[in-house]
Amino acid sequence: MLSVEEYLAEVLDLVTPLGEVDVVPVAQAVGRTLALPIVATADVPVMANSAMDGFAVRAADLSMGAILQVVADVPAGSPLDPALVAGQCCRIMTGACVPSDADTIVPVELVDQSADRQRITVREVPARGAHVRGAGEDFTRGVEVLPAGIALGARELGLVSGAGVAEVTVVRRPRVAVVATGDELRPPGARLERGQIYESNGLFLATALAAAGADVVAALTLPDDDDEFAAGLESAASAADLVVLSGGVSVGDHDVVRIVLQARATSAFRHVLMQPGKPQGWALWKTAAGRMVPLVALPGNPLSTMVSFELFVTAVLDRLLGRASQGWQVAVAGIDWVPPVRRRQFVPVVVEVDAQGCQRVTPVHRRGSASHMVSAAAQADGLAMVEADVERVHAGDTVSFRRYR
Length: 405
Prior knowledge:
- Helices cover about 20% and strands about 30% of the residues.
- The chain has four domains: about 5-20 and about 175-320, MoaB/Mog-like domain (Molybdenum Cofactor Biosythetic Enzyme, Chain A), CATH 3.40.980; about 30-45 and about 140-170, Molybdopterin biosynthesis moea protein, domain 2 (Alpha-Beta Complex), CATH 3.90.105; about 50-135, Molybdopterin biosynthesis moea protein, domain 3 (Molybdopterin biosynthesis moeA protein, domain 3); about 330-405, Beta Barrel (Beta-clip).
- The longest helix is centred in the last third of the chain and has 20 residues, at about 300-320.
- It contains seven helices and 26 strands.
- α3 packs parallel to α6.
- It is elongated, with a radius of gyration of 30 Å.
- It starts with a helix and ends with a strand.
């Protein structure tokens, strides 16, 4: 048997970073991975601006009870730069450019305004420079604000846009085909006969791959027939950078994935010291056009498929995209449970953060890791990892935790 790390190393050796890029508008870049760093095209803020609604003043004019004349109004977005002399101020809105002659903002709450709003009386004196956001205070033109290898979400894209960048260079999406196998599989909504089940792994894999940044080019359900499976696999691989399979990787007489790949591809099928997900496999399939396409074969039990996807397939995608893989965090067990003997356990858990900021994780079902329980993964926030030498997890014990992406 192999450890999780040993098997992961084998799978990662199948792929290298894609190295191909697309240039896309910022608004279309959500979920993409940066191929080049983002460099600011302007200072942010571009000019000194007010952090408060109030009055822009010269600090030299401030004292308790000082009376200042309001000579202008500067709303956000205004190009006005009113001149100020001793005893003068201007009304200013949050985000508006601070006049060149001013150096301090007095919030509106700290003054009394005359009935005609032409004068203010200072009731509290702020420090010089108070509530002024300086030009370039966040970052300056020419600095790197995001490194390559970052997946672009809403927060990152807000930063990119704020840095004045209109287009980004991103890694091409990996083209991935999904193949589920089994004569027993039927599409949702179909009438089930004895021995049949609804196909779910293929849909899970296709949607999870898309969410992780892949371009899903095919999603096939193939029968347990050697020739039909091989033909379908050739069709899937011919358009893909990677094929992810579910089912048929055990040692049964009808495990078509193992039978076909051992006969027609460079392949390896392993037992991995983990629960769920002990049977795993990988292969290199040579297409009719002569391309070698990597295949990652996952066990067919739904929870095993989901756990294996999180551990192995996401890591392969990360390598293709040139981004860092997600690490494990420290969490605390919320209840007692008994893990399997001599195998590392990966159990779907819900997580709660207590008043001290500690993450407390609880298995979604007390039996720990029944590999067929789809409902467990659907309720979970992520996976807890328990090492193979742990005989019992006690409430309060430290465990490793990784949140689903």
